[in-house]
Amino acid sequence: MSQRVKSIISVVIPCFLSFGLLVWLFLTIDYKDIWQAIKGSDMRYLSAAGIIFFLINFLIIWRWRILMKAVGLKSGRLSSMRWFFIGLFCNLAPISSVGSDVIKGLGLARETGFKPKVFASIVLDRLSGFAGIVILAAVAFLFGHGIIANKLVVAAIVAMSVLSGMIGVVLFSHRIFSFACNVFAAWPKITDNLMRLHYDIVLLKGKQDKGWESIGISIGAQIVLAIEFYLTAKGMHQNVPLVYFIIFSPIVCVVTALPSIGGLGFREIGWVYLLPLVGVSKEMAGGLSLINSAFTIIAGLLGGLFYVTTLSSGRIQYSKADGLLEGSSS
C-alpha cells in the first residue's frame, strides 16, 4: 500500500467515524432538543468549566516534563508546551499519516536531537495517563458500585485494568518484550529501534518515584476533569453528584482515544449512554458532551495558532526517513 493511500485512509477513517456517530446521535435525539438544553445553560458555570478544562492541559504538560527528566531528556518549558498544543491541533485536523504524538515527537526530537528519548517520554506519558485513569475508575467504582450496577460499566473498568497491567508487563519485562519483537524479525531495523525504545523506558525502573509522581498527576488531572464535567452539568441545571463523573469520565476518556477527530462522536455516544443511567436525559447528556467537544476544539485551535506562527518556515511532514520505527527513531 502506497504512502499516499495510507495518508488518505488515516484521514478518512477518523472523519467517517466522528461524523457517522454524530449523524447517528442526531437521528436518535432531535438536535433542536439538544440545542435547547445548551441554550438555557448558565454561562457562569460553563465559563468556569472552560477555564478548568484549559488548565488541565498544563497538568499534562507538567507530567510529560517529569518523564522527560526521568529518561534524561532536556527540553525547555516553552518548547514542550508548544509541541504539546501542536499535538492537540493535529488531533482535530488530520494533516499526516501519523498521530499527534508522533508529530509532536518528531518536532521535539528535531529540536533536542534525542529522538529515542523523546518517544520514550511520550510512551511513558501515555502509560502514566492510562494508569491514572484506571486507578481512579477502579477506586471510584469501589465506592460507587452500590449506586451503579450496570454490567457494561463493570466490564469496561475490568477491561481497562487488565489491559493496563498487560501493557506494563510487556514494556518493562526484557524477556517478554524481546519475545514480542520477534514479530518484526524480518525487519532488523524496526526490531533494533523497538529495543532502544524499551531500554529508554526501562530507565524509569530506577526512578520509580518519578513514575508514581506522574501517575499521581494523572489521577489529579482526571479528578479535575470530572469536576469540569460536573460544573458543565451544573451549568445545564443538572444536579448530578460528582462521584458519577469520577466514575464515568475515565471510561469516556478511553473511548475518545479511538480513531476520530479529537474524540468527536465517541465522546457524545459515551455520555449519552452513561448519564441516563443516573437520571440525566439524553438531550442533556448530548448537550454536555458537545459543550466539552467545543472546549477540545478551542484548545486545539490554540495549538493551530502555534503551528501556523512557529512552523511557517517549514511544516513538519511525515516521510519514511522520519518514521517512528525507521532510521534513528524508536
Walk me through the structure.
With 330 residues, this protein is mostly helical. It has 13 helices and no strands. Helix 6 packs across helix 10. The longest helix is centred in the middle third of the chain and has 30 residues, at 115-144. The radius of gyration is 20 Å and the shape is globular. The protein starts with a helix and ends in a 20-residue tail after the last helix.
**What are the secondary-structure elements, in order, as H or E?**
HHHHHHHHHHHHH
Number of extended strands = 0
Please tell me how large the radius of gyration is: 20 Å
- Note the overall shape: globular
How many angstroms separate the termini?
A: 22 Å
Q: Averaged pLDDT, please?
A: 78
- Biggest beta sheet summary: none
In percent terms, what proportion of residues is strand?
A: under 5%
Question: Helix- and strand-based class?
Answer: mainly alpha
Low-confidence regions = 312-330
* Count, helices: 13
Helix content: over 70%
What keyword list fits this structure?
mainly alpha; globular; disordered C terminus; 0% strand; 330 residues; single chain
